[in-house]
Design brief:
heterodimer, A: alpha/beta, Heat Shock Protein 90, 12 helices, about 40% helix, B: D-Maltodextrin-Binding Protein, domain 2, MetI-like fold, 19 helices
Chain lengths: ~375, ~500
């Protein structure tokens, strides 16, 4: 059951003076689904690409099924390791069907007939059976990525590497690709996924690797990493993911722009539409209440809105920090405050270092 | 439809303009006596003995060097020059063929003509044999008979067929530009003339066989002095500077220098009849269409061979380049960058006179080699830029599936490059076709060279040029047509579903 598919020992990669991978060791068991998260430039993609030697490691060893891969022809290894790229990389000028059958027919010497039948089945399973005679440039990004997954699956790889499979996609198409990967996850395939989709990583992965500065900085189960990260960089990263800040320096600031950002923040964490509207409304009311309460008409204003979403407890904390005179909006009895009281709880007001700090929790509908 | 109309109307319009412009004259100055030449514009072959005689007499005149007799005539007709100086025999021959030129009878001085031989042992020996032979035929009256036949006779009597030669003492390589009637010139596809028949008789007397190589005058001179040819036969004027690099036999004929001028004779023929005659002369007479056909075949051969070898070479070099051996790539880059900076014509002469000068490589092969190289350069850089333009991701995808770098390139990347750059490649092919027009410089009788030879005979520069222009146009369209069909096949989206499935049942 817990057979090791892939073992990486002290892997290091240098590009001249830049060292994207410092020292990485990892063991992957069969059936594991590993999600690699981390900021950009931390070596996640480079690591993935060294696993099938698209990048040659500077030092270190990689064992695949117990064999050192540097001792065998790389082409044979790659046949057993599938890779999905951020930019799909389907072969232009070939139909989806031809994209899928090229490798098995040419490299595994499977008959065209057999390969086509198999490809058709796979395309059906990802909802592309109508498109097998289409060319890549005739398809949407989501469709192309699904086809690329089929192409990789045609070689029946023992392990699948996903290099940010949804990063190049329109937000509306992310879902369809993730659905396909979810489907693969249920089939017990071994996968390593570099991704920025935190919810997805949390839901689908059996283990999360957090990369920082070319190393595996912290790793653990999704619950360990997302809910109780132990090390400071992980904590900062995970928090930042659920953190929103907006600064206001003018009386007639761009309200729709701010509202839009709040909406996409809410979308990213799966907040409901109603919840998002509620947060928007609370922000708007607290800003205008503060504007009237803290500043006179001709004063320059300076405010910051901070929103933190605590996913585990489904609590959304809203904080407004403002200059101007001391003021407590929650004491007033105007309409704005009535609305705020209707949607939130735990109202607090403090004055620290000459700044007013109002905070509240917005209650989910 | 629009483009068809354009083609139909534009072409004749272009030609009519050309015809009209060719008729536009410069200032005409009627020359009646030698005195009128004192400050005239006088044409002559560059650096020829006739010009030297004229310069002695008219030092203040303006001299204009023109390579071919036909050019001299054309310039005279268009009044770009007032007169040209040349041997009397040529002038006499001209007067028969051209109604509106005449020559002033008074001679400007004698110019001895003879054969040339290389300055080596073999050349020396041949020269001595020739001198001996000339003395013999002078004495027995054969030479006089030949002169009467070719130089003073009627054109109807000027026939010649090569003797049946044993060739027991070897075969002589005779060079001529075949543009010196009646000494050595082309009639149809045959080189005939006074000096040709004389050589024939010489060979018969001394047990040689011979073959004649038609080439430009300059090339012929170089080939004789370098020993590539055994004898140059072209009514060559004996000049001191030439004697330094080659051997002359005793004069075969002593020519008089005369000035040819034009007569403003109004033509009775109407426009169409005149053109009919001109076309007939350039195309039908002496089976010249056969020459044109042969020239077309040569041009096509060079073009097609160069396209095939050039494409293979360019592709092969690029595949070598892709191996990414730093040393090899430096060499490839160095060679191609150097060759890029050399005009094709210079490269052609360079190969002909240096690399292939001592090897017996037919000039047509030299041409194919050079044009293949030139095409390969274009193709190499096309492929290089073409691959750069294709995102690396597709190669990586192929690698990740287990394809080798080379197979990935051949199967997935190359077809895209070919597709993307096919039009540029078509342009390169067309350039190859049109550039072959320079092969005349190394003695290949292609289409352009054929036109040169025809106008040398007919003194009509315009019609042969129009004829070959039309032929080049047709060849070029043909090339485009064929390659367009290929381009259609290259677009994968033109394929039918059955073709994609290729027998597979789903």
């Amino acid at each position: 059951m817990t057979e090791t598919v892939l073992r990486v020992e002290n892997l290091r990669k240098e590009f001249g003076d830049v060292v994207p991978l410092k020292n990485i060791s990892l063991e992957v068991k069969r059936g594991e689904i590993i999600a690699i998260i981390g900021g950009s430039g931390t070596g996640k993609s480079t690591f993935l690409r060294t696993l099938n030697l698209l990048e040659r490691p500077t030092a270190g060893k990689i064992f695949f099924d117990g064999e050192d891969i540097s001792t065998k022809p790389i082409e044979l290894l790659r046949q057993r390791v599938g890779m999905i790229f951020q930019s799909f990389n389907l072969f232009a000028g070939l139909t989806l069907l031809e994209n899928a059958i090229a490798a098995p027919v040419e490299l595994k010497k499977i008959s065209r007939q057999e390969a086509c039948v198999k490809a058709k089945k796979l395309f059906e399973s990802v909802g592309l059976d109508e498109k097998i005679f289409s060319y890549p440039d005739e398809l949407s990004g989501g469709q192309q990525q699904r086809a690329a997954i089929v192409r990789a699956l045609m070689m029946e790889p023992e392990i699948l590497l996903f290099d940010e499979p949804t990063s190049a996609l329109d937000p509306t198409m992310v879902g369809e690709v993730l659905a396909v990967i979810r489907m693969l996850a249920k089939k017990n395939l071994t996968m390593i996924i570099v991704t920025h989709e935190m919810n997805f990583a949390r839901e689908v992965a059996t283990r999360i690797l957090f990369f920082a500065d070319g190393e595996i900085y912290e790793q653990g189960t999704p619950a360990e990493i997302f809910d109780a990260p132990k090390l400071p960089k992980t904590i900062a990263f995970i928090r930042r993911q659920k953190y929103f800040r907006h600064e206001i320096s003018e009386r007639n600031f761009d309200l729709p722009a701010m509202q839009g950002k709040i909406l996409s923040f809410a979308e990213r964490y799966g907040l409901s539409w109603k919840f998002a509207l509620r947060v928007q409304l609370c922000c708007e009311e607290i800003i205008f209440a503060t504007m009237d309460g803290c500043y006179s008409a001709d004063e320059t204003i300076s405010m910051t809105i901070d929103i933190v979403y605590v996913e585990a407890e489904k609590i959304l904390e809203l904080t407004l920090t403002s200059g101007g005179r001391a003021y407590n909006p929650f004491d007033d009895e105007n309409l704005s405050v009535k609305i705020l009281r209707g949607y939130g709880k735990n109202f607090r007001c403090e004055r620290v270092d000459g700044l007013n700090k109002f905070s509240m929790e917005v209650v989910a509908p | 439809m629009k483009s068809l109309i354009c083609k139909i109307f534009l072409l004749p319009l272009l030609f009519l303009t050309a015809i009209f412009l060719s008729g536009c004259g410069n200032d005409f100055k009627q020359i009646n006596s030698l005195d009128d030449l004192k400050s005239a514009r006088i044409g002559a072959w560059p650096e020829c003995a006739y010009e030297l005689r004229a310069r002695d007499r008219f030092p203040d005149a303006k001299y204009i060097g023109l390579d071919y007799l036909s050019d001299l005539v054309e310039n005279l007709k268009q009044h770009k020059i007032d007169a040209f100086v040349i041997g009397k025999t040529y002038a006499e021959n001209l007067r028969h063929n051209m109604p509106n030129v005449k020559y002033l009878p008074e001679s400007l001085g004698d110019v001895p003509l003879s054969y040339i031989f290389p300055k080596n042992e073999r050349g020396q020996k041949l020269r001595d044999q020739m001198n001996e032979f000339l003395a013999t035929v002078e004495a027995n009256g054969e030479l006089d008979a030949l002169r009467k036949k070719w130089l003073f006779g009627d054109e109807s009597g000027q026939t010649f067929t090569k003797s049946n030669l044993s060739g027991e003492n070897g075969t002589l390589k005779i060079g001529t530009d075949a543009q010196s009637p009646p000494f050595a010139y082309l009639r149809g596809n045959e080189v005939v003339g006074y000096e040709v028949e004389l050589i024939d008789k010489f060979c018969a007397a001394y047990g040689y066989d011979y073959e004649i190589k038609v080439d430009s005058f300059e090339t012929m001179l170089i080939d004789v002095s370098s020993g590539k040819l055994d004898i140059g036969a072209d009514a060559i004027e004996i000049l001191p500077e030439r004697q330094q690099s080659m051997n002359f036999a005793n004069p075969t004929y002593v020519e008089q220098t005369v000035a040819v001028v034009s007569v403003d004779a109004a033509s009775d023929e109407n426009f169409f009849a005149a053109w009919k005659t001109r076309l007939k002369v350039s195309f039908v007479d002496e089976d010249r269409w056969k020459m044109i056909l042969d020239g077309t075949a040569i041009t096509l051969t060079i073009t097609i061979a160069s396209i095939i070898f050039g494409t293979l070479l360019g592709f092969g070099v690029y595949m070598l380049y892709r191996e990414e051996n730093k040393f090899v790539n430096k060499i490839i880059d160095g060679i191609y960058r150097t060759l890029q900076g050399v005009p094709t014509m210079v490269m052609l002469l360079f190969f002909y006179y240096t690399i292939f000068s001592n090897v017996d490589v037919p000039p047509i092969l030299t041409a194919v080699v050079v044009f293949s190289i030139v095409l390969s350069i274009s193709l190499f850089y096309l492929l290089k830029n073409g691959e750069d333009a294709i995102p690396r991701g597709q190669t990586e995808a192929a690698l990740s599936l287990g394809f080798s770098e080379r197979r990935a390139f051949m199967k997935f990347i190359l077809p895209q490059i070919v597709r993307n750059l096919f039009q540029s490649y078509q342009v390169a092919l067309n350039v190859t076709l049109l550039e072959t027009a320079i092969v005349g410089y190394i003695a290949v009788q292609d289409l352009t060279r054929t036109a040169d030879l025809i106008r040398a005979r007919t003194y009509d520069a315009f019609v042969p040029i129009i004829i070959i222009a039309v032929i080049y146009l047709i060849l070029s369209r043909l090339l485009l047509f064929v390659t367009d069909r290929i381009a259609e096949k290259l677009n994968p989206k033109n394929r039918k579903r059955e073709k994609i499935l290729d027998g597979v049942k789903l």
